[in-house]
C-alpha cells in the first residue's frame, strides 16, 4: 500500500470517528482487505490512546470517573454505567473499567493506596469471579465484552490470530520442504531474541538471501515497523544475517527500504522462492 493511500484511509477513519466506518471505507478502496482496515484502525486507536493516556490517568480525573460511576449506580437505571461514561469521555471501555476498578480497590481494600498492577490485571481477566462487588464485576465484564480495541478479550483474540498465522507460515515452509527451527528450538539453544522461523538452509527471495522469517499478523505502519526494527528485526539480523518479515495484512510500501541491508518485507509467503535444492537440481 502506498503511503498516500494509507493517509487517505486514516483521514476517512478520523472523519467518521468510529469502527463502524470500516465497511464504508472498504467500498472506497476495493483493493484493501477488510482485515487490513481493521488492523489499521486498531493501530491508530492505540496511538490515540497512548497520546491521551496522561489526560485520563491524573489522580483527580480518575477519582472523578469513580465518583461518576458511584452516582450512576446509585440511580439504579438498569443501564450499564461504565459503558456510558466511557463513551462520554472518549476512552476505551476496558481502560475506564480498569481505572474505576483501581479506585474501588484503593477505597475498599488498600487503605487509600494504589493496588498492585498485577492484582488489577488478574481481576480484569476474570472480573465475575474475582471482583467481590458484583455490581462492579458485571460492569467491568460488560466493558470487556463491548471493547473492540482494548482489554483482555482483545488481547486473547490478537494472540490467537498471531498464532494462527505463525502456523500458516510453518505449513508453507513444510509444504515446500524447507527445514527450519522454531522459537522454542532456538531458545533451547540459548538464543534470547528469536524470529518465528530460522531456516536451516537459506533461501533466496527476489534475488536476496533469507536466513530467517518473522510473521506479523498485522498491518505494517511506520510506528509499528520502526519499533519492530529497533526491538526485534535488527537483533535477528545481527544474530542470523538477512531475513524476511511477512506483514500478513499488508504494509506501507515505502517501508520496504532495507532490502540491501538485509531485511525484506512481504505481505504473503512468496511463491517464487529459490531453494538450494532447486539450484542443485538445475542441469
Automatic annotation (TrEMBL):
<dbReference type="GO" id="GO:0005737">
    <property type="term" value="C:cytoplasm"/>
</dbReference>
<dbReference type="Pfam" id="PF14811">
    <property type="entry name" value="TPD"/>
</dbReference>
<keyword id="KW-0963">Cytoplasm</keyword>
<dbReference type="InterPro" id="IPR029404">
    <property type="entry name" value="CDIN1"/>
</dbReference>
<keyword id="KW-0539">Nucleus</keyword>
<dbReference type="GO" id="GO:0005634">
    <property type="term" value="C:nucleus"/>
</dbReference>
<protein>
    <recommendedName>
        <fullName>CDAN1-interacting nuclease 1</fullName>
    </recommendedName>
</protein>
